[in-house]
Amino acid sequence: MANAARTETAEAERPATRDLSRAPENGAPPQLFETLSGIPVQPLYTPGDVKPGLEERLGQPGQFPFTRGLHPEMYRTRLWTMRQFAGFGSAEHTNQRFHYLLAQGMTGLSTAFDMPTLMGYDADHAMALGEVGREGVAISSLEDMEILFRGIPLDQVTTSMTINAPAVVLLAMYVAVAEEQGIPPEKLGGTVQADMLKEFIAQKEWICPPRPSVKICVDMIEWCAQHMPRWNSISISGYHIREAGATAVQELAFTIADGIGYVEECRKRGMDVDAFAPRLSFFWDVHNDFFEEIAKFRAGRRIWAKLMRDRFGAKNPRSWQLRTHAQTAGVSLTAQQPLNNVARVAIQALAAVLGGTQSLHTNSMDETLALPTEEAATVALRTQQIVAYETGVTNVVDPFAGSYFLESLTDRMEEEAMNYIRRIDEMGGIIQAVERGFPQKEIADSAYRFQMQVERGQRTIVGVNRFSGDEEVSIPVLKIDPEIERRQIERVRAVRSKRDAARFGTAMAALRDACMSDRNLVPFVFDAVRAYATLGEISDVFREAFGVYREPAVF
Amino acid sequence: MARKIRVLVAKAGLDGHDRGAKVVASAMRDAGFEVIYTGLHQTPEMIVQAAVQEDVDAVALSILSGAHMTLFPRVLQLMREKGIADVLLTGGGIIPKEDMAALKQSGVGELFGPGTTTSAIIDYIRGAVRAEAGSAR
Q: What is the pLDDT of residue A471?
């Protein structure tokens, strides 16, 4: 990849007066003695830095407030799930990658969908032009989903699906594929991301405006609570918030504020908090600031436990538990000197494990260049296997507990996140805050601040603004065949022409009617999917019923 | 006084990754450019129409979805059809080196990848727009 930052012309033409000094000489220490969130860091921490009442703030592992982890023995009893996100090209390609990763010792599936799927368009829609199979696997109908999971017994794996705006469609397709395998919904384990609030905040993949989008998420939470006891009906995600530029504190705060928003919406519907809260799950980013990341995981569990017990009155200890997936920070990886990314990923994976994650995706070294090659994905999986089986960190629960620095940092992150959460409560809750663009603006400001710190040399990115050798290291990258788009278009058109038109028409009419009522839409989407209604057709029903969302273009 | 450089920062296609586009737009604004940001999910037609209406000196297209080999050529073609071939088309995102070379060969300006400083982008646009203004005179 060309490094425009280092082109001769750019350097020569830079006016001498501009205060964008180069990074300091190699060998000099980093310039900012603060965390990535801007929390100042002292040279030394002593007992005086830890406020009284530490034992109460910690509790025992497996007990309220779960600061030290969700289970009494953590990884001695069971390792985290090694769940590598995969998806590219056609359903056939991704099915092959799934089989390969399972053979390499991966313990859970995780599906990446392409942009048209994420936005609720079939492969033959005009907006899908050039995007089919590029950023994930293309799924337009139940037929694609049948191919995607061919030969994988769905009662023996757990599957995570990173899908939001059309999540209800993909959930229905997954359940339908399982039915074809003879497996009922109550036996299925896995997660559907289905967190629309963070879409409006950060990831920016939507169909309808915020309120109907959240309504459909709550429909899924409600339906899964009744029919899928092993299924996580939502993955309340900080990952995308962080990748969009948030600090660790903002990631923590906005994600938990989103969680509060969903709990409140469920309660408005009259649901008992203990009926659904045990199936809420979370998803953290793991960035480079090692201690801050560990503190974030610990603070997050404590904040959630207190909120669920004290604010929402949950009685079931499982409702108090913040169960989380984690993924190393894609945004921390560099296109320059890509092999260095292996080291970053290893350190981030270690932080996630020391923070007590329940499952983990480790990024591939080539993800700033393209979707990962099989070789790069294997190295990423091996990295977490090394952390799990060679380093010994799994032997002791929450080994940093009692560290003056880490406890002080955990407390500080809790305080700062709670300050944000109070501000959001004062705005009337997260939905109002999102409609006002509050988290969006905070994140954009943080992203800009960080970039300026990098350009002033106050933040070091090895291989980019320091230690950047002149030689270009190139590694193989995955190519997506443009033929995939053409074949996918043919397949979805064939599905439409060969399905039972009467059954399709009945199911779609029923779905349209349901959208005009307060009814839970999940069963209607199930019927439509079984009648081979496509993802785009079902999304069009939502567009007609609820309108389309356009974000105000601010920066 | 010279007219301020006007830049359209555009997000094409379905790609929702707007961190880079917003950071670059903010940096251009702070460098004294007039910046128009299209927002997300624009078609090539919408982008070129905005470029004509706003009378911009440059279009800066951000694509991180892998659809660059479809969307850059389409925007360039429409710019030629609408009579604004003299406006600079530049951009950035996750674009492999070979694709960058092919796009530049076809008439797209400099393309910027991850790790680029905002000052490099600003300097490039300033230089390219001034050169175009010079040649027009």
A: 67
The complex's ipTM works out to: 0.93
| Regions of chain A short of the pLDDT cut 70 | 1-27, 29-30, 470-471
Contact A95, A87 (CB under 8 A): no
Contacts of A371 in chain B (CB under 8 A): 66
Enumerate residues 6+ apart whose C-beta is below 8 A from A502.
none
pTM of the model: 0.93
Percentages (nearest 5) of helix, strand, coil residues in chain B? 45, 20, 35
Asked if pLDDT for residue B70 goes beyond 70, the answer is yes
**Chain A residues touching B15 at Cβ < 8 A:** 115, 131
Nearest CA in chain B to A204: B16
Residues in B touching A130 (Cβ below 8 Å): 13, 67, 69-71
* Contact in structure between A107 and A98 (CB atoms under 8 Å): no
User: How far apart are alpha carbons A171 and A113 in whole angstroms?
Assistant: 13
pLDDT the model gives residue A4: 34
Q: Is the dihedral of CA A93, A98, A99, A105 positive or negative?
A: positive
What percentage of chain B carries pLDDT values higher than 90?
87
* Chain B: residue whose CA lies nearest to A246: B19
Task: Test A455 with B65 for CB contact under 8 angstroms.
Answer: no
Q: Determine contact, residues A523/A226, Cβ cutoff 8 Å.
A: no
Q: Where are the alpha helices (DSSP H) in A436-521?
A: 438-455, 483-498, 501-515
Is it the case that residue B11 has pLDDT exceeding 60?
Answer: yes
Map tokens 């399982």 to a residue: A178
pLDDT reported for residue B1: 56
How many angstroms separate the first and last alpha carbons of chain A?
27
Sequential DSSP letters for A58-114: H--TTSTT-TT-SSSSGGGT-PPEEEEEE--SSHHHHHHHHHHHHHTT--EEEEEBP
The pLDDT value given to residue B90: 98
Mutate to test the interface with A, among B7, B11, B18, B70 (most CBs of A within 10 A): B18
Query: B43 and chain A: CB distance < 8 Å anywhere?
Result: yes
Q: Are A494 and A138 in contact (CB under 8 A)?
A: no
Can you give the pLDDT at residue B106? Answer: 96
- Interface with chain B: mutation pick from A7, A113, A132, A134, highest number of B CBs within 10 Å: A134
- Asked whether the beta carbons of B65 and A485 are under 8 A apart, the reply is no
